[in-house]
Amino acid sequence: MTVPCCEPCQKGQSLDDEYFLRTIGMRRGIADNRSARSAQGAAIRSLTKPQKTGFTRALIASLGLASIHSPGGLYLGQAMTYNADVNRLCNVIQRTTCGLYFHKFGVRVPDDHICLVYAMDGFASADLDVAANARKMWDSAISGKRYNFGNDVFSYWVQRLEGIEFATLWAFLVYASVAFVAVTAPATDLPHPAQDRAQ
After folding, report:
1. Which DSSP letter does residue 147 get?
2. N or C: which end of the chain has fewer CB atoms below 10 A?
3. What's the pLDDT score for residue 106?
4. What are the DSSP calls for 57-89, one per residue?
5. Residue 26 and residue 37 in contact, taking contact as beta carbons nearer than 8 Å
6. Which DSSP letter does residue 107 get?
7. How far, CA to CA in Å, does 7 sit from each of 4, 64, 86, 93, 110?
8. Residues 104 and 184 in one domain
């Protein structure tokens, strides 16, 4: 699937794409997906490449420990964690949203519209009301048809928002595990992307 892309939008894409693949590839839990195993292995092997020392140093500096609990709340011990640059991850999903918008509707996102992307993991520690609203947004986005690529490598859903022209709501799932929500709407109807994004 290919769509037109202007030169300014292409600049810096490959670095963010590479960061996205490496960071998602090392995430705990994705090994349950068969297609993710090769990505996980590639991400770990890349840490030894001399030309990737900057990424490796940043990753090592962000390592820590976190308590792990089962879905039922049982304490399972501690596991290694790393901090991800959520903005860089969301940048990739933002470009993906704009590309899929063109593919789906045959027009580009209008210049007076913006696309906001939120990582669903970022709401895990949010206030209950905020987390509940994020969950409602997710549930609304996935109420339609699911478009799936590969062995659950990448899935997306899209809904048009009634009453606002060109406004859409998207849900994305990477390796059936990492979730993002995106919204396109007139800039006047949405907060500026520079404002707090779920991290």
Report:
1. E
2. N
3. 92
4. HHHHHT-EEEEEE-TT--EEEEEEE----HHHH
5. no
6. S
7. 10, 38, 24, 18, 17
8. yes
**Predicted model pTM:** 0.78
What is the rounded distance in angstroms from the CA atom of residue 197 to the CA atom of residue 193?
7
Match 């918008």 to its residue by tokens. 101
Better-scored residue on pLDDT, 83 or 168: 168
Structural domain that includes position 123: 86-189
Domain final residue, candidates 18, 52, 81: 81
C-alpha span between 54 and 48 (Å, rounded): 11
The reply to whether 1 falls in a domain is no
Residues 54 and 97 in one domain: no
Cα–Cα distance, 163 to 173 (Å, whole number): 27
In sequence order, what DSSP letters do the residues of 156-198 get, joined into one string? EEEEEPTTSTT-EEEEEEETTTEEEEEEEEEGGGS--TTS---
Verify that 162 and 179 share a domain, yes or no.
yes
Number of domains into which the chain is organized? 2
Does residue 196 fall inside a structural domain? no
CA–CA separation, 185 vs 163, rounded Å? 11
For 66-110, the pLDDT digits (tens) are 777 676 778 878 776 767 788 889 999 999 999 999 999 999 999
What's the distance, Cα to Cα, between the start and end of the chain in Å?
A: 30
